[in-house]
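Agenda item 2: S-adenosylmethionine complex prediction
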Amino acid sequence: MNTTNFQIPSIQDRFIYDLIYNCLALPTLAVAYELGLYDRLAETPLTIEEVATALSLTDRAAEAIVGVSAATGFLHRKSDDDRFALSEQARIYILPESPFSYGESLGYASFVNMGSFALDAIRKAVKHGSRPSDPKAIATQMLDQKEISRLMRLLHAHTLPAGMAIAEHPYFDEIESLLDVGAGSCPITAAVVARRPGIRVTALDVDAVCPQGEEMLRRYGLEDCATLLAGDMFAGLPTGFGAHLYSNIFHDWDVESCRRLAKISFDALEPGGRILL
Ligand SMILES: C[S@@+](CC[C@H](N)C(=O)[O-])C[C@H]1O[C@@H](n2cnc3c(N)ncnc32)[C@H](O)[C@@H]1O
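Presented output:
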């Protein structure tokens, strides 16, 4: 591929994100209903932390059910603070006392359309802490090459358009070296070296995944523009970089692991270096 064609796409990829992720909205709303989110918010608007306390959830689980409920129009954020309130849509179509309520039926509608898999996976993820229920991305070392290749192709398509925009950020005017941590098939590395040839970029991932990065960089003719490094990010990071970029990494891990990674980065970065999330 000619890297002069490596431009920010002229159409945003939201439509395809919606296509892929909208199917998770219904089971998420069903689980939120089961947990009593909408009844609580009918009493009074709450912040995400208050929802977590009221429903005995982690902050991350509360953020997920509130975020999906807001994105689908059932909640709105109050303009004067960070509290979320029920929308009219939720009062009419979700609350059990409404004659038009679907609330009780959300779980059944999800089951009828998608079987129990999505519902069970989301229930498990929301109720049992902050670890992902299907942790493929945090256990790539355990996957076979065919599965790694399929996962990385999806992640590459998912990340490259955003990577192209990220590489244009003025922040990259200020840095000379970047470590792409958990680089996968190198969408961010490819975007940065293509758009910012002056920046020295190293992409780090577990050894089972590095061939995916090599293949993608070769496909773009960028194989000589970045260094690939096999390693375990939890075992320490190489020194000598002005910035560490974690693309689609922190949301995969529990909070304690994210703290460990931040500390590992802090110890390895040059003075004044930055962690980019
Ligand atoms: C969700 S993917 C993100 C890939 C890429 N950064 C992107 O945005 O498309 C998570 C990546 O973290 C990598 N990873 C998981 N555990 C790791 C570890 N201990 N050390 C280095 N990389 C790891 C996985 O192999 C995978 O490529």
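Discussion summary: The first helix runs from residue 14 to 21.
Owner for follow-up: CH.
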